[in-house]
Design brief:
CATH superfamily of the largest domain: Spore Coat Polysaccharide Biosynthesis Protein SpsA, Chain A
Shape: elongated
Strand content: 5-15%
CATH architecture of the largest domain: Alpha-Beta Complex
Number of domains: 2
CATH topology of the largest domain: Spore Coat Polysaccharide Biosynthesis Protein SpsA, Chain A
CATH class of the largest domain: Alpha Beta
Strand order of the largest sheet: 3-2-1-4-6-5-7
Number of helices: 12
Radius of gyration: 23 Å
Structural class: alpha/beta
Number of strands: 7
Order of helices and strands: EHEHEHEHEHHEHHEHHHH
């Protein structure tokens, strides 16, 4: 397969040349996307890099990491490459791992591969505590919103994608900034693309992170909730109907009734001093327990509903 690398470039002039130099011969093209960088990363690369594989793309306005990657994807599609690997220009991602990310796609078992820094327990200790806790929380929310229950480390930006998946994505709808990686997983699930984790070590040097947890926490929570609702609607009501399509609304309704009725009767009991009857307790507890069981059954079905047949399988049959 023909492999291209996309390097979003924003204030990475200290590291980007080393990243490019470390890209192996298995890569046929290196797209450096200058995302309206104040340091003019594109001009810097053109002046100091003689690698004939490098092609600099420029944005007139800053579009964020997602916008830069989408620009690189479009260029790779136009030039006919089969696999596009996204590598940051700040030196955190080792280009020596590119073949590891391409391997499951080239083997035909995946459409998208992403890094997982939590695979090796000995390496987790190198991760800053704030990132460790934050990634654990984001991973749980991402499982709900993306439907990929077997994946972890959703904000990991070291990724590879097959052109069959990239060609079917609406680039204009994908989040262009820090939510980009998770939004990609959500979009891939709606396409029924197969995604796999690739174990990798965390690397932290003297790079500067532009991510502020306090600034994006509310935004991430809202977008995760929105994508969860959209994914459930697409997969269980718009495209397909199954027993799980009934379990979710009935279970939610029963749990809501049990909680609301139970809270009301409990408050009334406190106010009047009268002990609730056994029938009142059952009328609250039984719907609550049955609703919980239905919701757990839905989650079990959703976990088993992870895509298993790669899109590229159909791509090869049609081409």
């Amino acid at each position: 397969m023909r492999v291209a690398v996309v390097i979003p470039s924003y204030r990475v002039t200290r590291h980007v040349l080393k990243v490019i130099d470390a890209v192996g011969a298995e890569v046929g093209r290196i797209f450096v996307v200058d995302d309206a960088c104040p340091d003019k990363s594109g001009d810097f690369v053109e002046r100091h890099c003689s690698d004939p594989r490098v092609r600099v793309l420029r944005h007139a306005q800053n579009q964020g990491v997602g916008g830069a990657v989408m620009t690189g994807y479009r260029a790779a599609l136009e030039e006919g490459f089969d696999v596009f690997v996204k590598v940051d220009g700040d030196g955190q991602m080792d280009p020596a791992l590119i073949e590891r990310f391409v391997a499951p796609i080239a083997a035909g078992v995946a459409d998208y591969a992403k890094g997982n820094r939590f695979f090796d327990l000995e390496q987790i200790g190198q991760m800053p505590a704030l990132r460790l806790v934050g990634n654990a929380a984001l991973s749980f929310m991402a499982k709900l919103s993306t439907g990929y229950w077997d994946l972890f480390d959703p904000t990991n930006g070291y990724t590879a994608i097959h052109r069959a998946a990239a060609a079917r994505m609406n680039f204009g709808k994908i989040s262009r900034r820090y939510f980009f990686e998770t939004d990609m997983l959500f979009r891939l699930n709606t396409l029924r693309a197969v995604v796999v984790d690739v174990p990798m070590d965390a690397r932290y040097g003297d790079e500067t992170s532009h991510l502020r947890i306090s600034r994006i926490l509310g935004e991430f929570a809202f977008k995760h909730a929105r994508n969860t609702l959209k994914r459930i609607f697409y997969n269980y009501y718009l495209r397909d109907m199954s027993l799980a399509s009934l379990q979710l609304p009935i279970g939610a309704a029963m749990m809501t009734f049990g909680l609301v009725f139970g809270a009301w009767r409990w408050a009334d009991s406190l106010a009047t001093g009268q002990v609730a009857t056994a029938g009142t307790v059952m009328l609250s507890g039984l719907p609550l327990l049955l609703g919980l069981q239905l919701l757990l059954s839905f989650i079990g079905h959703d976990m088993a509903n992870t895509p298993r047949v790669p899109l590229q399988t159909f791509w090869r049959k049609l081409s």
